[in-house]
């Protein structure tokens, strides 16, 4: 079978790498891919960005299955387009992708279906938003209503920060996020305390298969300091997700979400990612939904997946009524996996580009460097900004996988390269 992966990040490199290991897969196309997917002989990059053109190409080239990595094409309706033309694709429709693309939609959905989440209110008028913040007090959280690549959330520890965030998102609209009703909106919500974890499942519209748990590190600097980023590193499994927390997240969040979406007439197919906040008593609330796998969480999670990913995705996209998806059990490597992101100078505000990358070690049984912001130009691997590489390894414990991952990245160099040196540190709080 010929398969297609849509996207260009480390998550998509990991998807393509894993799919290429399936004995049934003949070739994996990656659109548009990156320098890492260009270098792998089993993968082939495809320079098509337009959704209709990609669908036409997939039809002409008899692509058996398409897997979409990022939220952008999902929110733009790539799944609807492919399905309307009889192509098999794994991901949510445009309507279902609103769980991620609109905070106002997902908060209203959670309220309607009694799914635990922070208390909130939605505003498009700045004056009312300012008054609300004054009433509620700090800390408080201000979120732009729209896709903002991880930059649309301000956790305001003071009232001044909250007021500034309202002006930034509603008055100046500097983020330029695409809003759903032609005006800028913000969601202002209660500040939650606890330990975060990433909880991802596969859904076929009705049934759910959970993936291994993980924990991301969203802040730029060691000790969880500095601005939010797309994610600077992750490890799996997340020890904070005890069997009790896991059962609760399934019972109180995931299953009611899938049922609720089905009931609302927009069944959810694809990866559903719930960002969890787990408090000291083990109560679980939803911080956010994503309609896709996380990046960098995918890289360590797929390092641990032993089951053939193609078989899993085929089961998840079988025509309704003919599914063995509900009985699917995934097999996981018992070891811990960790991914450390090597970022470009200036990331996340103004990442620099065009630096030559050297010293990437060969793939080993227990280590793989997934590429993201890279390009292959006349045989030289160069940075094209943002998160450049995700160095991923497997070992018997968090401590050991930390040692191994940081050892693997020692040989890698590009000008401006920076990374966190403490990925996994939260695991020691919960051990
Ligand atoms: P989001 O994109 O909604 O997941 O928000 C990004 C990050 O902001 C989360 O990973 C949390 O660290 C933080 N955050 C979001 N909402 C809240 C909240 N209600 N309380 C505390 N922290 C939050
Ligand atoms: N790493 C967080 C995300 O993918 O949203």
Textual characterization of the structure:
With 431 residues, the protein is of the alpha+beta class. 29% of the residues lie in helices and 26% in strands. It contains 14 helices and 22 strands. It has helices at 10-19, 35-39, 51-60, 71-75, 78-84, 98-101, 103-112, 126-136, 159-171, 243-263, 298-304, 309-316, 398-408, 427-430; strands at 2-7, 27-32, 43-45, 65-68, 89-90, 120-123, 140-144, 153-156, 186-190, 195-204, 208-210, 215-216, 219-221, 225-228, 233-236, 269-278, 284-290, 336-343, 367-371, 374-377, 380-383, 387-395. The strands form 6 sheets. A 5-stranded parallel beta sheet has the order 3-2-1-4-5, with helices on both faces. Strands 12-15-18-22-19 form a 5-stranded antiparallel beta sheet. A 4-stranded antiparallel beta sheet has the order 6-9-7-8, with helices on both faces. It is globular and about 60 Å long. The model has no long low-confidence stretch (mean pLDDT 94). Glycine is lined by residues 216, 230-231, 290, 294-295, 297. Residues 118, 141, 143, 153, 155, 189-192, 196, 218, 228, 275, 287-288 line the site of adenosine monophosphate.
Poorly predicted runs of 5 or more residues? none
Largest sheet: 5 strands, parallel
**Rg from alpha-carbon coordinates:** 21 Å
Oligomer: single chain
CA(first)-CA(last) distance: 43 Å
Ligands, deduplicated: adenosine monophosphate, glycine
Keywords:
alpha+beta, 29% helix, globular, binds glycine, 14 helices, 5-stranded antiparallel β-sheet, binds adenosine monophosphate, 431 residues, 5-stranded parallel β-sheet
